[in-house]
Amino acid sequence: MLELSDFAGENEQPVTDSHPSRRMKQQDRTAAYVKLEEQVFSVKKRFLAMYKKAHAGHIGSSLSCAEILVFLQFAWMRDDDTFILSKGQAVAALYSLLAEANVLHPSQIDSFYEEGTRFPALPPFNAIKEIPFATGSLGHGLSLCAGMALGAILNRHERRFFCLTSDGELNEGSVWEAALFVAHRKLTNVVWLIDRNRIQGIGRTEEVMALEPLDAKLRAFGFRVVVADGHDFASLLAARDECTRVLAAQDPSVARPVAIIANTFKGHGIRYMQDTVDSHYLPMDDAQYEQALAELTDAHGAAVRGYRNAG
Questions:
Q1: Under DSSP, is residue 82 helix (H, G, I), strand (E, B) or coil?
Q2: Is residue 8 part of a domain?
């Protein structure tokens, strides 16, 4: 696992700041970005193999949030923080992430989707410590985070609670009820991330139930809103730094929680799958699996070269 010191932390300068040892810091940042790219590539390869073996769908949901999960695990969250994957259909990416973080052994998740497995198609209940709730029923992750966050404040525990929801989940009234509660209680120990890939199970979000202007709606509910590219680590790290700056500068009596809108693509990185409703459901055949691996490998190599050339 990357140590938080590999990136500018909460009490340090943001990664975008200049400082005297700029050249060395740039080299450090480049190495850290490359490390994140290596980790997300490993996570993606692992969950693609899981989906292929299980002949299962929801591949697009995992591909839209893979960088977000890696970013949270290795560049923001502390050991005592809690993560809730509200968009439970992407749990293969979470299983793969936990294997990457050495919380699970890769062999443990070989039984993904099988009869009697501890690693079903949706997050299990009371099976894995790092997955505190079953979230197969969508729209409840933010409520769970809100309850735990309030409990931590009442018990004077300095813990943070990160929740990743899909944008399709915002059709659920329970999400907006939770948002009202988080803002009303000034639960600044909640970080809400929205995977804004603009596709849900039955179509495009703006055709099923329009969400735009989403940023304005979240602000009206009492949130400070940060927008990021959910597939770009530099953008995600800048969003983290902005959230940290905002929270540190606020008067506690008027504090507002933060929400990050992470713009993504469902099925990101695989041409036949990207930005399609089909990627929500359909499994891969042999040729599609080989194509997916080849395209992800090419994209990974280009990303690593890009960071190194920029450094």
A1: strand
A2: no
Higher pLDDT, 255 or 167: 167
What domain range is 195 assigned to?
21-310
Average pLDDT over residues 45-66: 98
Q: Which helix (H) or strand (E) holds 260?
A: strand 258-263
Domain assignment present for residue 5? The answer is no
Neighbours of 13 (CB within 10 A): 12
How far, in Å, CA of 116 to CA of 131, rounded? 18
- 37 is a domain residue: yes
Q: How far apart are CA 196 and CA 159, in angstroms?
A: 26
Q: Kindly state the DSSP code that residue 124 receives in the 8-state scheme.
A: P
DSSP 3-state assignment of 259? strand
Residue type for 307, please? Y
Total number of domains in the chain: 1
Quick: pLDDT tens for 247-294. Answer: 988 888 788 999 999 999 999 999 999 999 999 999 999 999 999 999
Cα 145 from Cα 189, distance rounded (Å): 9
- Cα dihedral: 274, 278, 281, 282 (round 10): -90
Query: In CATH, what number is assigned to the domain containing residue 234?
Result: 3.40.50.970
Q: What does the block give as tokens for 39?
A: 């980790």
Alpha-carbon Rg for the chain, nearest whole angstrom, is: 19
Residue with tokens 């505190």: 132
**Residue 204, domain member (yes or no):** yes
- Would you say the C-alpha torsion 152, 226, 92, 44 has a positive or negative sign? negative
